[in-house]
Design goal:
Elements (H helix, E strand, L loop, with lengths): L7 H7 L10 H4 L9 E5 L5 E4 L1 H7 L3 H4 L4 H4 L10 H5 L10 E8 L5 E10 L6 E10 L1 H38 L5 H33 L7 E3 L1 H14 L7 E5 L6 E3 L1 H18 L4 E9 L7 E8 L29 H11 L3 E6 L5 E8 L8
Helix pairs in contact: 7-8, 8-11, 9-10, 10-11
């Protein structure tokens, strides 16, 4: 705790209001330096008697320089309009009925933004101030979240604009000039509208998945899944769409443990990984399905699926960003949300997913799922 030895008894007392039910932090084994938020405590004279390690980090002020200083000197805060915060709030001379200041954004010298809240501890209701307890939080994490939300909105707006413009254009043209087009022209336009509607539907589904992943509400409805057959269906779909059959190599190591998972979500994972390999990779796309050690504690076996290609692979410096929102391996379309959703689905099953470099030099994605069998089958 950043408290001078001559003030240690007073500082200890500062953490305990009269009649407190929680006792002395020393008795509870709590050191202010262990708190995740910045903590500053001023005594009845407005002198700082506690300034923890998080407060040092957030304010870039040394505890040794803050201790013993007046509150407004140790923490010279301004609001977003440039007004001195302690002069505005006047904790020691203001209304005697006030007990707190709600959290709000304030500025440190140099313009750094912090979240500040305060509690006024009085000797008795409406009595003089005994302590002012101030908590500080860094705004960087909140700013990153806000930037992520802004990027998501911008991406969604961009991705929706193109198909909706196409749908609107073709439907307006057909309605206005229906008789002028041949049946083949009408069919082409309607097929384009149908494909663009599918794009919008996929994007909305991605947004719903992201919302559920971020809030921890992604539901997994487990049932037996034949993972080999599921991969086979995806390969057949690519071949039917024009990909050469010899571009895909499926290898299954038997015997595989019985897998209980959500078949729709596993299909979503396979679809994203195979599309990534086909679109961004080169050469043969190899899918290996093998039994493995379960990622879940208490289970012995699991199932691993590895999807690799022979393309240029993912740069080493980008490996740690692959599963973040908006990461794109190239500029060839896509929202950059697919692999983020894949990771969320795998982890919702209790599994793990990694990315690396394949033997052939391309990208290699490997996800491992626990068996996930219901308790009555154990």
């Amino acid at each position: 705790m950043r408290v001078g030895t001559s003030r240690a008894p007073e500082a200890r007392d500062a953490h305990r209001a009269p009649g407190s039910r929680h006792g002395d932090p020393a008795e509870l084994g709590i050191d202010p330096d262990e708190l995740p938020d910045g903590l500053l405590i001023a005594d009845e004279h407005g002198r700082v008697i506690c300034f923890n390690a998080a407060a040092e980090r957030i304010t870039a002020v040394r505890a040794a320089d803050a201790l013993g200083q007046r509150l407004d000197k140790a923490l010279p805060l301004e609001d977003l309009e440039g007004r001195r915060w302690w002069q505005l709030t006047d904790p020691y001379g203001g209304l005697a009925i006030r007990v707190r200041q709600p959290e709000r954004n304030l500025l440190l010298p140099g313009g750094r933004e912090v979240l500040v809240s305060a509690r006024y501890v009085r000797t008795h209701p409406t009595g003089p101030i005994r302590r002012v307890v101030v908590t500080l939080r860094d705004t960087e994490a909140r700013r990153r979240t806000e930037r992520s939300h802004a990027e998501l909105i911008a991406t969604v707006a961009h991705e929706l604009r193109s198909p909706l413009t196409s749908v609107k254009g073709f439907t307006a043209t057909l309605l206005a000039k229906w008789e002028r087009f041949t049946d083949d022209q009408k069919r082409l336009m309607l097929e384009t509208v149908d494909a663009d509607a599918d794009r919008v539907t996929r994007l909305i589904a991605e947004l719903l998945d992201i919302s559920r992943i971020d809030s921890g509400r992604l539901e997994v409805r487990r049932q037996p899944v034949d993972i080999g057959a599921a991969v086979g269906r995806h390969i057949q779909a690519y071949v039917a769409a024009g990909q050469p059959a010899d571009r895909f190599l499926l290898r299954i190591e038997q015997p595989l443990p019985a897998l209980w998972a959500d078949p729709d979500k596993i299909d979503q994972v396979l679809s994203n990984l195979l599309e990534n390999a086909v679109r961004h990779g080169e050469g043969t796309v190899t899918i290996d399905i093998t039994p493995s050690v379960s990622p879940r504690e208490g289970e012995d076996v699991g199932t691993s699926v590895t999807v690799s290609d022979e393309g240029p692979g993912i740069p080493e410096e980008s490996m740690n960003r692959v599963f973040t929102r908006f990461w794109r391996g190239s500029k060839r379309g896509g929202t950059g949300l697919g692999l983020y959703i894949v990771k969320g689905i795998v982890e919702a099953h209790g599994g793990t997913i990694t990315v690396g470099r394949a033997r052939g030099g391309g990208a290699e994605f490997r996800f491992t799922l626990p068996v996930g069998a219901p308790a009555y089958l154990a």
